[in-house]
Design goal:
Helix content is 29%, strand content 23%. It is of the alpha/beta class and 440 residues long. The chain folds into two domains: 243 residues, Vaccinia Virus protein VP39 (Rossmann fold); 178 residues, Adenine-n6-DNA-methyltransferase TaqI, Chain A, domain 2, CATH 3.90.220.20. The protein has a nine-stranded mixed sheet with strand order 3-2-1-4-5-7-6-8-9. Strands 11-15-12-19-16 form a five-stranded mixed sheet, with no helix packed on it. The protein has a four-stranded antiparallel sheet with strand order 10-20-17-18. A hairpin with a 2-residue loop joins β13 and β14. The radius of gyration is 25 Å and the shape is elongated. The structure holds S-adenosylmethionine (SAM). The site of S-adenosylmethionine (SAM) has 15 residues, from α1, β2 and α3.
């Protein structure tokens, strides 16, 4: 990470290390600086750390650096969010460099941290993007930041304000992707890829150096310069940050013939509206003839709808009454896409047909772990539903998805940002698929 910083900008450095821990990153930076031609200038290090036990280790580590004479260090014990926000309010943007491995923690919508960040114009949902946004704001002109962070901010609606801030204030110099199947940031057993991102303030956006490695030791490193338009597609209002790869490039090319948005198809994709713990009293483990089928991802074994499931840990049904009616969909064909896939699953985008022939003629409940394609909260024509399933399950869609989504969660927003074939082409695909199935 220390090596990423520009070699010609190491004179008179004021370095920010936010969430410094024992100071590993500051130490690495100091080593790089001492090896540079600017070692007779000055290096000032401000290290922020909340945890008192860490501070006790951090202080002697940084003090040892001062022996060389040109390095001055300061440990600031306290909450970086508070300290940084105060400095931003005072317009103190003095850091020439920032290096960070920030804490990963969700920020509650009613928390003090959320309010403090909002008070300086930062809207975000996780401490790591909060730290990165604050560090960007604290940088002087042409200041650089190198951060190791999860990749989740690259897509998804909740990180959109952060992406906007980052892309407005800085240019992306490089992104390194740890293309590994394990992760230090893994949460809830959801795969989470990590990146090292290098950003610079106040310089024009040029091509971006993309590198990848398959393990932590940075073996198997491959890198290439990629045009910025491949990273953030022009006109993409969501500002997804894509990390191009060969398969994704080919996928983009093969999908480029598709020009329809979902809206143009007259189709909507929504998150399954039944949040089971909120409707507990209305759920039924075995649905009676008056109850609506309630569909979970577990009802689609190997992609085929299997309902009801006798050995199922989740409910099979939901009562139809005044309290539940608004969450239910009329019977018919729908397309369900899993919102979470297991790490070991080969595909991230898994689309399944909701086939009314396999369900009673009653409204359906779709549980919150599914994304549902529908038309005005009603069913899709059968051919269109079958066509969408066939299209969404192509390798090209999976490769397209992996370019911007580094975890195993598939958001409805992700599916809305895909370009689809025309309605006629999808219907045609659906008819061909149905014929093939009936011949098998
Ligand atoms: C992921 S660790 C990184 C430590 C170190 N930078 C490294 O790379 O080894 C994040 C650090 O941030 C600290 N931290 C967490 N919340 C903080 C806050 N609000 N203000 C300052 N430091 C915080 C933690 O105590 C922890 O030491």
């Amino acid at each position: 990470m220390a090596k990423q910083f520009r070699a010609d900008r190491l004179e008179k450095v004021i370095l920010l290390d936010a969430g410094a821990g024992q100071g590993a990153l500051s130490l690495a930076f100091a080593k790089r600086w001492e090896q540079s031609r600017f070692k007779s200038s000055q290096l000032v290090i401000d290290a922020y750390e909340l945890d008192n036990a860490m501070v006790k280790l951090l202080e002697p580590n940084l003090q040892a650096l001062e022996a060389c004479g040109n390095i001055k260090t300061q440990v600031i014990e306290g909450d970086f969010v508070e300290e940084a926000s105060n400095q931003i309010r005072r317009h103190e943007c003095r850091y020439t460099h920032a290096i960070l491995n920030p804490p990963y923690k969700k920020i509650g919508s009613k928390s003090r941290t959320r309010a403090t960040l909002a008070s300086v114009g930062i809207e975000t949902v996780n401490l790591y993007t909060g730290f990165l946004a604050l560090s960007i704001e604290l940088l002087a002109r042409e200041g650089e930041v190198v951060a190791i962070v999860p990749r989740s901010f690259c897509n998804g609606p909740y990180y959109r304000p952060f992406r906007n801030l980052m892309l407005e204030r800085t240019s992306i110099i490089s992104i390194h992707l740890f293309d590994a199947r394990d992760s230090a940031f893994a949460e809830d057993d959801v795969l989470q890829e990590n990146i090292i991102i290098h950003l610079q303030k106040g310089v024009p956006q040029g091509s971006v150096l993309i590198s990848k490695s398959t393990n932590r030791d940075l073996d198997n490193l491959s890198s290439e310069l990629v045009e910025f338009e491949r990273i953030v597609h022009p006109g993409d209002e969501e500002k997804f940050i894509r990390i191009p790869n060969k398969a994704g490039q080919e996928a983009n090319e093969s999908l480029s013939a598709n020009t329809c948005t979902l809206q143009q198809l007259g189709v909507t994709v929504s998150t399954g509206p039944v949040v089971d713990f909120r409707l507990k009293t209305h759920l039924r483990s075995s649905a009676s003839s008056d109850d609506a089928p309630l569909l979970y991802p577990g009802h689609f074994a190997g992609g085929c709808l299997l309902w009801p499931r006798a050995d199922f840990k989740k409910p099979n049904g939901i009562a139809i009454n005044d309290a539940t009616q608004r969450w239910l969909f009329p019977p018919g064909h729908y397309v369900a896409v899993k919102r979470f896939t297991a790490k070991e699953e080969q595909r991230r985008v898994v689309a399944m047909l909701v086939d009314p022939a396999l369900l009673p003629e009653l409204p359906y409940g779709f549980e919150n772990h599914l994304n549902i394609y529908h038309e005005n909260r009603g069913p899709l024509p059968e051919d269109l539903a079958r066509g969408l399933v066939a299209f969404l399950n192509t390798q090209a869609v999976d490769d397209w998805f992996r370019e911007f989504n580094g975890h195993t969660q598939v958001n409805a927003t992700d599916l809305r940002s895909l370009s689809y074939p025309t309605r006629d082409a999808l219907m045609d695909m659906g008819r061909r698929h149905a014929t093939r199935k009936s011949h098998q």
